[in-house]
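User: Design a sequence. Structure:
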């Protein structure tokens, strides 16, 4: 059955048999909202940004919009409307209690190793609408141990930065893929092939491949 979120952390379900939407009594573990370049400061956005389904636990795992709060949602817990639990925060370390925690990206995927993989923005990210460049971090959450780990800045083998992402998925072999903006370094005498600039840094869109350790 389809589920979604809106407003101040409210959760709903849609029943295709009756064509009805029902607001559930559960709420997301919301946090005072961050600051977005494209949002009204007075607008409260606290719905979930992205969720993934885990076939093993029969739960959704997702990230709340404004503070990258990680939560689980068990729609069949036996409680009325299901059960939501706060599991932590998937932001770059240092942003945890700040109001300007970057707006959550869509880059969440469940790996074959039972870990959630999330590309956290280094600062508010909106491609060419970003104020300044910052390097994304790869954050994981282990569903087996409950451990959150920051794997550091996301960089290409030649040292170029991953400036932001907004898509993620896992392949059948466990390979993790992201799509987003990577740094482009101009070369003397060669035209710059880029989609635009973030601050003073050129970028282009690319698919990124990450191989988790065995």
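Assistant: Done.
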């Amino acid at each position: 059955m389809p589920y979604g979120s809106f407003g101040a952390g409210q959760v709903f379900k849609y029943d295709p048999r009756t064509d009805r939407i029902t607001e559930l009594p559960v709420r997301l573990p919301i946090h005072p909202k961050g600051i977005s370049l494209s949002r009204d400061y007075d607008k409260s956005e606290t719905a979930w940004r992205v969720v993934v389904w885990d076939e093993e636990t029969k739960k959704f795992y997702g990230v709340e919009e404004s503070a990258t709060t990680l939560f689980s949602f068990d729609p069949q817990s036996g409680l009325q409307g299901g059960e939501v639990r706060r599991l932590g925060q998937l932001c770059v370390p240092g942003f945890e209690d700040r109001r300007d925690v970057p707006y959550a990206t869509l880059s969440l995927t469940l790996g074959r190793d039972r870990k959630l993989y999330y590309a956290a923005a280094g600062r508010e990210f909106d491609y060419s609408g970003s104020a300044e460049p910052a390097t994304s971090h790869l954050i994981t959450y282990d569903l087996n141990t409950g451990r959150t780990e920051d794997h550091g800045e996301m960089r290409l083998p030649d040292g170029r930065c991953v400036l932001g992402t907004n898509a993620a998925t896992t392949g059948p072999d466990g390979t993790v893929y992201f799509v987003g903006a990577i740094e482009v370094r101009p070369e003397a005498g060669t035209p710059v092939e880029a989609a635009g600039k973030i601050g003073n840094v050129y970028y282009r869109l690319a698919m990124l491949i990450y191989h988790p350790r065995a």
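Residues 110 and 210 are 13 Å apart (CA to CA). DSSP finds no helices and 15 strands in the chain.
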